[in-house]
Amino acid sequence: MPTLGNRKPFRLWIVGALIATGALLSVLVRERWPGPRRAIYLVGVPEKGAALFFGDKQCSICHSINGSGGRVAPDLSGKRPATPAMGWLTAVVWNHAPGMWRQMRHGNVSYPQLSSEEMAHILAFLYQAANVDRAGDPGAGERVFQEKGCARCHSVRSSGGKTAPELSGIAAAGSASAWTRAMWNHAQSMVDPVTKALGQWPQFTGSEMNNLIAYASAGSTATTPHGRQVRSSPERGWQVFQRKCIECHSVRGQGGNAGPELGPEHDLPVSGAEFASVLWNHAPAMLRKVREKGGSLPLLEDDEVGDLQTFLASLRYFEPTGSAFVGERVFTERGCAHCHGTEAEGTKMGPRLRAGPEAFTTVSFAAALWKHGPRMMDRAEQSGVPWPVLEATDIGDLVSFLNHPTH
């Protein structure tokens, strides 16, 4: 079975991963739609998370965000989880926790204690920081500007066409959100003339859009010098989605069907440049749909672009589901049954793990790991039992198995 290996960098950044995991698994709010209660998006105040990360909780002594912070452990701003994100994070924590615990004991480092509210804020900060666009290439952006036909109408620092607005002012701060807002709000007037002039509506990849923004902004970046400020909010983005998008788009089957489903099972843009490219590429189809209904594309204001993008990206961080029957096999094959019994009923080696009155969730799974993990590691080493290695997809199956009634 493939593992993540025992590389030292993973051991070093696992403290941050644990914080992010605990927050991720404990700060999900519930849907406001009728039907089964399911987690829908992440909440928290990024500014408060930054204050905790760089202040009271001292995470930045070892870790950095976008280059700001310690150099003992890796920068945490570029760690994008695989799917399912919750399962991936929990599996990473589990698989690399023994190495982390040994290092913390050796260095006499105490565990950071976090309330649920603090976890929510730190997660919001780490999650959004991870989705900040890396610096684009202005030279490559200039080639995109020419090859995609932008220069026929637009100019950048007076170089290019004169029939459409100068673009350097729009992207003066290197802000993907400002760029996306201007692009989207003018799409209705651009689609027909651009398609007629070029013979087609040009398509952009996320990296091409990022490079184009870098060229238009002369290489400036919207990221603050210390990487400590992230303004967008998934909760506000959810409100924007309900006001301006839900008539045509749905999330987990709730909403309109004129446009595609935008739920967590689908590949959604996570960075500002990716979001801009998706909106641009699909603008003609969206405009055609709203015109058929006799309407117009909704305008986006101020920070609504960043909030909406953050909301959609956060949908990928969903509570994993699974099969109790597959989970039973995983429980045995990963070695859990050796200590806890084939039915998780408990043995002399380990306690009963079957759910009681309250069903297990990934939250309680992570909480139990944090609370009891070091003792479990000591017992496993004393008994000569290898530490089980989990995959991201195991987590939902294991939780389902532990919640399933015994045979």
Shape: elongated
Strand content: under 5%
Task: Summarize the amount of helix as a percent range.
Answer: 40-55%
The pLDDT mean sits at: 77
Q: Trace the largest sheet across and list its strands.
A: 1-2
The overall number of domains is 2
The low-pLDDT segments are 1-42, 222-227
Q: SSE order, as H and E?
A: HEEHEEHHHEEHHHHEEHHHHHH
Overall structural class, as computed from helix and strand content, comes to mainly alpha
Distance between the termini: 29 Å
Number of strands: 8
- Rg to the nearest angstrom? 24 Å
Count up the helices: 15
Let me know the largest β-sheet: 2 strands, antiparallel
Characterize the structure shown.
By secondary structure, this protein is mainly α. Helix content is 49%, strand content 5%. It has two domains: 8-130 and 320-403, no CATH class; 138-314, no CATH class. The chain has helices at residues 8-26, 46-54, 85-106, 116-130, 138-147, 176-185, 187-198, 206-216, 234-244, 272-292, 304-314, 324-333, 336-340, 362-383, 394-403, and strands at 28-30, 39-42, 64-65, 68-69, 155-156, 159-160, 250-251, 254-255. The strands form four sheets. A two-stranded antiparallel sheet has the order 1-2. A two-stranded antiparallel ribbon has the order 3-4. Strands 5-6 form a two-stranded antiparallel sheet. The radius of gyration is 24 Å and the shape is elongated.
Essential attributes:
5% strand, 15 helices, 407 residues, two-stranded antiparallel sheet, mainly alpha, elongated
